[in-house]
Amino acid sequence: MPAIIAAHIATATFSVILGAAVLLAKKGTPRHKALGRLWAVAMLATSLSSFDIRELNTGHFSWVHGMSLLTIVSVGRAIWAIRQGSVRGHQLAMRGSFIGLIMAGIAAVATPHRLLNLIVTGWIA
Fold first, then answer.
1. Shortest CA distance to 71 belongs to which of 90, 48, 87?
2. Residue 46 pLDDT class (50, 70, 90 cuts)
3. Nearest of 124, 116, 121 to residue 53 by alpha carbon
4. Which residues contact 17 (CB under 8 A, 6 or more apart)?
5. Which of 59, 97, 102, 122 is most buried, by the most CB atoms less than 10 A from its CB?
6. pLDDT at 103
């Protein structure tokens, strides 16, 4: 497995676990803020690492990279919203980012010939 794909899977998995913890934590606490900052960094690392993975479209960017751009914008929007005092805007952007992360993971597992699909289904030669 190429190192960039391993890093991408690792940061995405960490983002799912950490994102669930942040969503379940009491809001506004120092713990929530620290975990949220760490989650934002993990999400950005996951998104940025995707730009070096181009197997889906024979070396070119694909629709998946559009999701990565959307994630970068959404996480940035969430940070901006909370700094402006818009708790609702922050919540919406963070929840949307987390839902997008989950959907991307499901798509990666469900799409034939993608590495996660091959790992989960056991079709690796």
1. 48
2. very high
3. 116
4. none
5. 97
6. 86
The tokens describing 57, both together, are 């479209």
- For the chain, counts of helices (H) and of strands (E): 5, 0
pLDDT the model gives residue 33? 94
| Structure tokens, 43 | 């999400």
Indicate the helix (H) or strand (E) that contains 33.
helix 30-50
List the structure tokens of 108.
């990666």
User: What backbone phi and psi angles, to 5 degrees, belong to 109?
Assistant: -75, -35
* Span 71-109, pLDDT tens digits: 999 999 999 999 999 999 999 999 999 998 888 888 877
In this prediction, residue 121 carries a pLDDT of: 77
CA distances from 9 to 14, 26, 83, 120 (A): 8, 28, 30, 13
3-state secondary structure of 15: helix
